[in-house]
Amino acid sequence: MTELDSQLGNGASSGFTSLEPEPRAEFIAPPFTLPPYPYDRLKPVLQAADMHPGGAIDLSIGTPCDQPPENVCEALRDTSSVAGYPTSVGSAALLEAAHGWLERRIGVRLGSGSLANCIGTKELVAGLPLILKLRSPRRDTVLYPAVAYPTYEMGAILAGCRAVAVPVDDQWRIDLSSISSADAERALCLWVNTPGNPAGALDDLDAAAEWGRTHGIPVLSDECYIEFTWQGPPRTILRSGPEGVLAVHSLSKRSNFAGGRAGFYAGDADLVRFVSEVRKHQGLMIPAPVQRGAAVAWSEDSHVDVQRDRYHRRLVRLAAQFTRLGLAPTLPEGAFYLWVHAPDGAWETASRLADSVGVVVSPGEFYGAAGAAYLRIAAVQPDERLDLLDQRIQAWEAQQ
Ligand SMILES: Cc1ncc(COP(=O)(O)O)c(C=O)c1O
Fold this sequence. Notes:
This protein has helices spanning 3-8, 43-50, 70-76, 92-106, 122-135, 151-158, 181-186, 205-215, 251-254, 269-281, 288-298, 302-324, 346-357, 383-399; strands at 57-58, 115-118, 141-145, 162-166, 187-193, 219-222, 245-250, 263-267, 337-341, 359-360, 362-363, 374-378. Helix 2 (43-50) packs parallel to helix 13 (346-357). The protein is of the alpha/beta class. The radius of gyration is 23 Å and the shape is globular. The strands form 3 sheets. It has a 7-stranded mixed beta sheet, with helices on both faces. The protein is built from 14 helices and 12 strands. The chain folds into 2 domains: 38-67 and 302-399, Aspartate Aminotransferase, domain 1 (Alpha-Beta Complex); 72-298, Aspartate Aminotransferase, domain 2, CATH 3.40.640.10. It binds pyridoxal-5'-phosphate (PLP). The site of pyridoxal-5'-phosphate has 14 residues, from helix 5.
C-alpha cells in the first residue's frame, strides 16, 4: 500500500493502486434509469401503418421532408477547410451570417460576443442545464412549459436537476404566475418556446423576459419555428433586450437543414461567454463544411418563404383530412403541427388511424402528461403522400 493509498483509505487488499478514494455508501447516487426514447414507443403503431400498400404515412416526428437550397448543399461539398479544427463558436463568416439574419429578418442587432453556434439545437437544449449548474451550483431546478418539446425535461434529468413543469393556460401558453416562489428560488433557468411545439402557441416573451429579470433567472427562449409564425409578426425574446436571456435558433426547420446540424444561441453577452467557453472545453463544434453551408443558409430568405407556403398549405390540407377522419383540428398560431383533442384516447386513436388509413401521429403524452388527451400531427410529408392519404380516407369512408 502506498502512502497515498493509506491517506485515501484504500486497503492493501484491493490489489491495485488507485488515486480515487473508495466511495462511501452514502455518496453513491442511484443508477440512472434511462427512459425509453418517446418515438421508439411508437414502433408498433408504425408497423401497423406500414402494412398498408404504399407503406406508412408518417406524421409523427417533426423532421423536414423538403430539400435545402442547392447552394447550401454546394457549400457542404467544399472540403478546403477540413484539415484543421473548426472554431467552437463558429467561423467569422458563420457568425456574420447569423448576426445578419437576426438583424434582417428578426429586427434585432446584437454586439459581437453575444452569439455562438451549436451543433443543431437539441444538443444545446439537452446540455444547457449542466453548464448553467456550473455557473450557479446552489441552484438545481429547470422550469419548462408543462406541454412542450421533451428535451427541456431531459436536459434537467441529465444534469441531475429537478425538472419542474410550469402549467400552461387553456391556449397552451406558459402560465408564469403559477411558478411558486420556492421553485423560483431554486431555478437555474426557465425555458419558453414560441411558436410552441406541439401546440403552436405564442407566448408573451416580453413578460417571460421580465419575469426572469425580476427573479434573476436566465430565460432560455427556444425560437426554432420563428419564421413559421402564422398569427402576427415573429416574436423573439431579444426584442426586450439581451440582458438575462438567450434566444435559441436553428436551421433545421427554416432551411430544411436538420441533417446538417446547425443552430445558434444569442443574447446576454456574459451568458454567451460562459456557455461558449464551457462548450469549447467540451470540444463541441460544428464541422467545417457544415459551417460553410450554414453561413449560406442564414444569408438567404427566399427559400424560407417558399417553405412557409408549403407548411401552411399542408396544415390546411391535413386539417381537412383529419376532420374527415373524425377529429376536430384547428390551425395553429405558429409552427407546423396540428394539436388535436382525441376524445377516444390518444393511443387508441393513434392505433385506429394507423389501422384504418396507415397514418402515424404522436400521442400527446410525449410532450407532457398535461397533453395526454391530444395528438400531434406534423405537416412533414410531401403532397404526393397527402394525395395517398386522400385516397385511403376515401376508401375508408366508403366502408363506413
Ligand atoms: C421546440 C424544438 N426545439 C428544438 C428542436 C431541435 O431542433 P434541432 O436540434 O434540429 O435544431 C426541435 C426539433 O424538433 C423542436 O421542436
